[in-house]
Amino acid sequence: METELVVTSGRKYIDIDAYASIIAYRELLRKRGYRVTASSLSTLNQSIPEFILGLNYHLDPTDTQKDAKYIVLDTSNPDFFDERVTNDNLIEVIDHHTGFEDYWRNYPNIKTDIEFIGSVCTIIYERILASGHVEILDTDLCKLLVAGILDNTLNLKSSITTDRDRVAYEKLMEIGNIPKDFYAEYFSACESEIMKDFAKAIKDDIKIEKVGVLPEVIGQMIVLNIDKFDTEEMKKVFEEYPEWLMNVICLEDGKSYLYFGGEGVRQRLETLFNKQSDADDLLVLDEFLLRKQIMKKAREASLL
Ligand SMILES: [Mn+2]
């Protein structure tokens, strides 16, 4: 039997960029004649609200062939790959988180495409375009990719947003004939999803990775308005960790609210950002940064 290709992503939790891009890449590879599925052993986080799950595209079951070959999207750190992936069954990595480019140079048989761009969905859109299969982009597939771009670029307002992301967004909106206010529908659906179980929403998007002076445990949440953010409830989630950081990105005022706990964390963050903290447990950045940007900054600072 023909080898099965499995498109998958990270371990533990995946977000809309991963969810949408693995589904869209499956559609492209299927169109090109491959036997391919898209699946994940991980929990879908709150960036994937119910109406997204109700679209016409879904993940496949995870019981894949024993000799299946894997393609990983939206992460390039091998410690955080879906648990079925090994360096022996892996054939391709497409990501927009930096840090592991050198590592993958040691594996010339594994194709890698790691670019610091707003969203992996943008890369997949470009591949669909380049392969000449734009016809697979129906409204629901466009909505998926647009949601991934909106989420990962913070409504195209984050400084990591590239012109490629903007073009992909505009083209997908046009091809899918998607109403202009789709971003509002998407972000308010995510907010409702968060409010259903606030603590769980935080837990479902915690990254544990030691980078530079940052605490090892880093959470992230995107909110429309900071007033709705319950700091007491949040602190309970981090109680079990000796040190932690929570990046609350507020779309309305364009700021990152960095809450933190643990000895010495305040000073380390003040040094890293060259900015006084606003309280014992809070440092506010004048423009929002995504967690991956904060980690990139810390990684670069540690190399100086
Ligand atoms: Mn992403």
Can you summarize this structure?
The chain has 304 residues and is of the alpha/beta class. Helix content is 38%, strand content 18%. The strands form 3 sheets. Strands 3-1-5-6-7 form a 5-stranded parallel β-sheet, with helices on one face. Strands 8-9-10-11-12 form a 5-stranded mixed β-sheet. Strands 2-4 form a two-stranded parallel sheet.
Overview of the structural elements:
This protein has a five-stranded parallel β-sheet, covered by helices on one side. It has two domains: 5-186, inorganic pyrophosphatase (n-terminal core) (Alpha-Beta Complex); 198-303, Diaminopimelate Epimerase, Chain A, domain 1 (Roll). It has helices at residues 16-31, 50-53, 101-105, 120-130, 139-153, 163-175, 182-196, 198-203, 231-238, 265-273, 291-303, and strands at 5-8, 13-14, 36-38, 43-44, 69-73, 90-95, 111-114, 206-208, 217-223, 244-250, 255-261, 282-285. The radius of gyration is 19 Å and the shape is globular. The chain has 304 residues and is of the alpha/beta class. It is built from eleven helices and twelve strands. A hairpin with an 8-residue loop joins strand 8 and strand 9 (217-223). The structure holds manganese (II) ion (MN). Manganese (II) ion binds next to loops. The site of manganese (II) ion (MN) has 6 residues, from loops.
Descriptors for this entry?
304 residues; alpha/beta; inorganic pyrophosphatase (n-terminal core); Diaminopimelate Epimerase, Chain A, domain 1; 2 domains; 18% strand; globular
